[in-house]
Design goal:
Layout (H helix, E strand, L loop, with lengths): L2 H7 L12 H16 L4 H14 L3 E2 L11 E6 L3 E6 L9 E7 L4 E12 L2 E9 L12 E8 L5 E6 L19 H4 L3 H4 L7 E4 L9 H14 L5 H4 L1 E6 L4 E3 L5 E4 L2 H14 L8 E7 L15 H13 L4 H7 L1 E4 L3 E2 L21 E4 L3 E2 L10 H13 L4 E3 L9 E2 L3 H5 L4 E6 L1 E3 L6 E4 H15 L2
Helix pairs in contact: 2-13, 8-13, 11-13
This protein binds manganese (II) ion (2 copies).
């Protein structure tokens, strides 16, 4: 057989390093790390995106102003999700190219009555948010992020513990010396949900009962003016305190909290900002609540997004049904990268690999594709076609072995609108851990993929 014929017959995924220079990849990674360090919650990611959009000339969406080609608008949904849109030169009725990512990540939310004292320490009780391996969240520094609405309506944003000169927080674990009972338990139950209690204070005040709890409350009152009752209306989360770090002698990867899924949001946003007058209308939706099922008014199943798209149509004189039918969407969410240390969980022939670019995932779901929107052959061809045309490194990949588990994405919510949708995202390692790992070359590939998609 000739080399030529052999190359024609066999498929080989590109390496992301063959599609971009190290300078481009590293420069983009710097911007990404900056975004990550200031976006540890969905609220913070939305605030970052809003500011970046304003700097690029985006205006707040106004339902009373007619839209025309080249208009750039943003719509913030309750400070927890954001939609950015650039109206294209073609008729809006021809459909939009939409990228949806989510900006919430697994974390430990405080319960509504979190503060208590026990055994000489003050603690916050938590209820974890999203799918975590609980044992990973102990014995490490945690930061506290969130919003408190005081009785007088004043809103206080709290962000404490990320920088080395600030106090951080901590969940203890049992010392191995006396952990026989714990160590004999399965990994999933060795640390319980009710066991994820955060140490928040140790210094007593001059009181007989609950002297440490009262001292913590006094400190909170002096710093923020909040009382124990204010926790009831608060939304506070403990997140890993560490910032994004380069990994490896070659610094080719980034470890960070919450790659899933800000690692797709940031590159898509950067790609959207590049073209002031795209042919087709281009939209980024950064949704909340994906990690707990996309429910709630800020989750992708909320009518907020459908209504926004409908408003875009009304304000540009387009038919909404035609718009949806002609639109195409990337459900931009992370994929699980093949992990050689846990190779047994994967089908190595159908896994995504680090440095091979974005993962195009035809279907997600679990146990027989259940819960998947399963993109059509036509759509897979259309998307991989544009990625090839624009020289983007891409690969295919399933989560793991059949019947080993699986995952869902917002693709199903998009499909409800009769919009063609396919999952495309960055492959990552240690997904849903406090410190996830991704390749800089793949992050840059995501940016190139979004850019290519917007030219579709
Ligand atoms: Mn995700
Ligand atoms: Mn996730």
């Amino acid at each position: 057989m000739t080399e030529e014929l052999k190359n024609k017959l066999l498929y080989k995924a590109k390496n992301a390093y063959d599609t971009a220079s190290a300078e481009e990849i590293n420069a983009f990674a710097c911007g990404y790390k900056n975004f990550m360090d200031s976006s540890k919650t969905e609220r913070e990611a939305v605030a970052f995106a809003k500011k970046a959009a304003e700097e690029k000339g985006f205006k707040p969406f106004d339902r009373t102003v007619t839209l025309k080609a080249g208009d750039k608008v943003y719509y913030v949904n309750r400070d927890k999700s954001i939609v950015l849109a650039v109206i294209g030169s073609e008729a809006v009725e021809n459909g939009a190219n939409i990228v949806v990512a989510h900006v919430d990540s697994p974390r430990l939310d405080l319960k509504q009555r979190p503060l208590y004292e026990d055994g000489g320490l003050a603690y916050f009780k938590t209820h974890y948010y999203g799918g975590i391996k609980k044992y990973q969240w102990t014995a490490m520094p945690l930061a506290l992020h969130g919003t408190v609405i005081k009785a007088d309506g004043e809103k206080i944003n709290i962000s404490l513990g990320d920088s080395a000169d600030e106090a951080a927080f901590y969940i203890s674990d049992l010392m191995p010396h006396i952990a026989k009972d714990q160590i004999d338990k399965p990994l999933g139950s060795a640390i319980s949900g009710e066991g994820l209690n955060i140490i928040v204070g140790s210094v007593p005040c001059n009181e007989e009962s609950n002297p440490i709890k009262l001292a913590v409350l006094q400190a909170l009152y002096e710093k923020y003016g909040i009382t124990e009752k204010d926790f009831i209306t608060a939304e506070l989360s403990a997140v890993p305190a560490d910032n994004a770090r380069d990994i490896g002698f070659d610094r080719g990867m980034i470890a960070a909290y919450g790659h899933d899924d800000r690692i797709c949001a940031y590159p898509s946003m950067c790609a959207l900002f590049e073209d002031d007058m795209p042919k087709r209308t281009c939209i980024c939706i950064f949704a909340d609540k994906e990690e707990i099922g996309s429910y709630g008014v800020t989750g992708m199943s909320s009518a907020a997004y459908k209504n926004f798209l409908l408003d875009i149509c009304v304000l540009s004189g387009a038919n909404f049904s035609a718009f949806c039918e002609n639109s195409v969407c990337l459900s931009a969410d992370v994929g699980g990268a093949y992990d050689a240390c846990y190779g047994d969980a994967y089908d190595a022939k159908n896994s995504a690999y680090v440095n091979k670019g974005v993962v195009v995932t035809k279907y997600t779901g679990a146990r027989g594709k259940s819960g998947s929107s399963d993109a059509s052959a036509e759509l897979v061809a259309k998307i991989t076609g544009v990625l090839d045309r624009e020289g983007v490194a891409w690969q295919t990949g399933e989560y793991g072995k059949v019947d080993q588990g699986g995952a869902g994405t917002v693709a199903t919510e998009i499909a409800l609108l009769n919009i063609d949708v396919i999952d495309v995202g960055v492959p990552i390692l240690s997904m849903h851990s406090p410190y996830e790992l991704a390749s800089k070359a793949d992050i840059f590939a995501m940016y190139k993929a979004a850019k290519a998609f917007f030219t579709l």
